[in-house]
Design brief:
This protein has 10 helices and 12 strands. It has 295 residues and is α/β, with parallel strands linked by helices. The protein is rod-shaped, with a radius of gyration of 32 Å.
């Protein structure tokens, strides 16, 4: 039994006439007659009484019509659901983002997306870059944003923004008064860094190696899981750290932290999605919004 057969049967039942039903359905009378005959023969029952050239529903047909209309209504509702999802009138988008992107760069973008597509439910989870990659690999998120360029063949990655990494200290730290900080002096201070797996830490350690410095030589006082925790710890002691300028900006403005003149290269924020999983219309709309905002 097919939806097309049910549709034809229901229209014939409403019209009580094969030719008028065929005209309504934009089919030939023979196609309509064949569909009804196929139903009756398959289930060895009659749905209509044939009285001369006229037809009318019999008791079996009346009972079956109720069920057929219910099925057709559910099919119409399912079609409407797909239409609304395709038209971004309903749906959801689960995003997994690293702390820096989720806390400072992403929120204005998500607010713009919500304004454009208020019926799309946005779900944001926060973790470090490795956790974002794991979530996408396992199908727990539709899109991911990270700061480190990680090598994962299953994921498509695209640069979407630039970020500045800076070195900051407590204003009482000896480095706060320096005009320049040579790389060979980095091991002369205790450091507070993000945990392993953090994009900020990965970019910093990669740069140190490029400068001929071993990250293991830095005296590590604390590993902390968030930018705000690091900033709070720095105000309590003479430590150094590397942070996104976005995260450090309010603390620099307030005078509770001081930027050290140690130049780090800019890094990129990356948009990730799984290469082999279906890209929803909501994801495509978010992607288009981000890309159109690039310089």
């Amino acid at each position: 039994m097919t939806l097309e057969q049910l549709r034809i049967f229901a229209e014939v039942a409403r019209q009580q006439h094969l030719t008028r039903a065929a005209e309504s359905l934009h089919l030939t009378p023979s196609a309509v007659s064949a569909a009804i005959k196929a139903l009756e023969e398959r289930y060895a029952t009659q749905l209509f009484n044939r009285i001369g050239r006229r037809i009318e529903l019999n008791e079996t047909g009346r009972i079956f019509l109720h069920e057929a209309e219910a099925v057709l209504a559910r099919a119409q509702a399912a079609e409407l659901t797909l239409t609304e999802i395709t038209g971004l009138q309903r749906g959801s988008l689960h995003i997994y983002a690293s702390q820096t992107t989720a806390s400072y760069w992403l929120p204005p973008l998500l607010a713009r997306f919500h304004t454009a597509y208020p019926q799309i439910e946005l779900k944001l989870s926060i973790g470090n870059s490795e956790q974002v990659v794991d979530a996408l690999r396992e199908g727990l998120a539709d899109a991911g944003f990270i700061e480190a360029e990680l090598d994962e063949p299953l994921l498509h990655k695209e640069p979407v923004a630039y970020d500045e990494l800076i070195t900051v200290v407590n204003p009482a730290h000896p480095w706060a008064q320096l005009e320049t900080l040579p790389a060979e002096q980095l091991s002369e201070s205790f450091w507070i860094l993000r945990e392993q797996g953090s994009g900020t830490r990965a970019v910093f350690e990669t740069y140190l190696r490029e400068q001929g410095c071993d990250p293991a030589d830095l005296p590590l006082a604390l590993e902390l899981p968030s930018n705000e925790a690091i900033c709070s710890a720095l105000t309590a002691g003479n430590y150094a750290t590397v942070l996104s300028a976005l995260a450090a900006r309010p603390h620099l403005a307030a005078g509770t932290l001081k930027q050290v003149p140690f130049t780090l290269p800019p890094r990129q924020f990356w948009l990730l999605n799984h290469r082999e999983r279906y890209q929803s219309h909501a994801f495509k709309a978010l992607y288009k919004m981000i890309i159109s905002g690039l310089p």
